[in-house]
Batch of 2 targets.
Target 1
Amino acid sequence: MADGHTPIVASDGQALLLLQQEFPNLDFIELPSYKIRYNRGKSQITAILRSLPAIVAATIREHNQLKKTIRKHHICQVISDNRFGLWNKNVHSIYMTHQLMIKMPDKLKFLEKTIWRIHRWVIHKYDECHIPDFEGKENLSGDLSHLYPLPKNAQFIGPLSRFKLSVADAVGKPIKKYHTVAIISGPEPQRSLFEQELISRFEDTQKPILLIQGKPQTTDIYQIQRLVGDFGKIDQVPHLASQTFAYYLLHAEKIICRSGYSTIMDLHALNCLHKAEFTPTPGQTEQEYLVEYHKTKK
């Protein structure tokens, strides 16, 4: 590895499974889950309030786990992807986030600036804060990282993506092209509800549709199958390797997906943002804001 250092990846849930598939030669550690449980309806206020004790407990556990990990593996630097407890006074730590201010639901809007101050206090526990976005007006995150003054240890580093446009089109011509690629992602039960909504929407279409189900835990990740029954020209696949995934996105006329920030950065890297039809996960205020923000940029 660069400079003689070997990275160790720590995560949980589906994110951990995805990273293990993308980087099979690295070592992995499972972190405590924040265990946020979302409602089936549009309002997630009760889900947020219900999850707060679990988030605080997981933050304490991951902070204590990091101390043991540093001693065991002789860690010299920690990069935290928006996890609050992965700082340590004995090593250099970097906090990675685009969401310096957290959008609150309408009924909790009065708490927004207070939450921002608490988040800033957490950020200052780290040596550095890296913001994966552009600094100027032509940015991807809008108010989330540009509304309030930056923490003193923060800097913009530009968007990050697993996709590289220079290699994404190197898969070759035999792969089928689809009119619409739908990326299904996010927590349950909303992931499954979104999938069923899209199947119903396209069951009578005569244009080829690909549903990428967002299931990295499925063993056969490359097998594209036609849906059984009267579903027009819908194909589905649990998950795709990055290069193949990028190929389908580049050659689609339309992309339907959630408005998560990682997805937005991926589409920007492929120059595909103009193709996107964003559907926010109900009740996720960050995604609801990003949908409206990117509508104004088209």
Target 2
Amino acid sequence: MILKLDLVKRIKEFFDLNIYETKVWVALLSKGIASAGEVAEISGVPRSRTYDVLESLEKRGFAIMKIGKPVKYIAVKPTEVLEKIKLNTMHEAQEKVQSLVNLKDTQEYTELVALHNSGISPIKYTDLTGSIKGRSNILSRMRELLENAQKEVFICTSATDFEDKSRVLVPAVEKLSANNIKVKIALFGEPEYIKKLSIKHGLKIKSTDSTARLCMADKKEILFMVTPESSKEDMAVWLNSPFFTESLHNILEHTVSK
């Protein structure tokens, strides 16, 4: 059997394997059960390396060593491997999240916050501006902006964009409301769709004629999208400017239906 090199290239990254591991696993899958020599012949991996690679695959759950002589290996089904990787990834992610949560209680974190506060305090409001690229970075900044709001929040975007970001926006808005922080949401789009979103999420949502996509906090801080929804890469501008933010807020208020 000739090993499908295009298949090797496509799945290598999916399973977090190096090129030798991928070739050996694919070769083993094609046989079901095979010796190191047979795997080496099919995969094209040097026989001297095949033993080490098979041992590595066994430790990672991609293969099982068959009891008996000569030594042979049994390929683990792709479905079982996928489930194992999913469980391991979830476990690693949970450990990482817990590690980050615990970081806030360390002296190192306290020192980092103190360094930031001492560095940011003499900076003028007009200097606190920046561009943010990428959906995840923008959502992260938006979440932080909402969590730090003290008095009021104003969200203006399209109905489809709001629904797309609802996983972040809805819990944040619910938390703000629970803390008696005023929240105003204005969406543009089909009126019926906006009404459905209002009912679905249990939020008071108003319609607007403005096509701006932004998030304001306390009329001081704003995250303003500068790319259209159809753009392949999201980009936003963040400003900590009370004068600009309040002025824009007053303008947009007139576009919101009562």
